[in-house]
Specification:
This protein has 122 residues and is an alpha+beta fold. 39% of the residues lie in helices and 20% in strands. Strands 1-2-3-4 form a 4-stranded antiparallel sheet, with helices on one face. The longest helix is centred in the N-terminal third of the chain and has 47 residues.
């Protein structure tokens, strides 16, 4: 193989990896945007009812018209009401990267009200 061909293949490989990372980041950004709409609805529901909804669908259509699906991972929200260590009501909204998330290889993207932010974990 000529040197020029090898350089072209190396360049294309680097470009492909870079585009994949950029595409993944844009999917995370859009998932966060959609998730923030849901988080806002959850907080509004909580303000009106003094508790978090037991399921996301209870907010339809008063607090949010539709539940926008995430565009990252398995593309389905997981929601649960939780309680903090000092018995304060709380919730978690997340999307898993894979159906096998939790095995140490796959990640999740979650919103935590305590930190008021999104985190990636595995």
């Amino acid at each position: 193989m000529h040197m020029r061909s090898k350089l072209l293949i190396a360049f294309l490989a680097i470009l492909l990896v870079s585009c994949g990372r950029l595409f993944g980041k844009s999917r995370l950004a859009e998932t966060k945007r959609r998730g923030n709409l849901i988080v806002l609805a959850i907080e509004q529901y909580h303000a009106d009812n003094h508790e978090y909804p037991t399921k996301l669908e209870l907010m339809l259509p008063k607090y949010i018209e539709t539940l926008p699906n995430p565009v990252w991972g398995v593309r389905k929200w997981k929601y649960s009401r939780t309680v903090t260590r000092n018995d304060t009501p709380d919730f978690e909204l997340r999307v898993n990267e894979s159906s096998q998330t939790g095995d140490g290889m796959w990640r999740y993207y979650a919103y935590y009200p305590v930190t008021k932010g999104w985190e990636i974990g595995d």
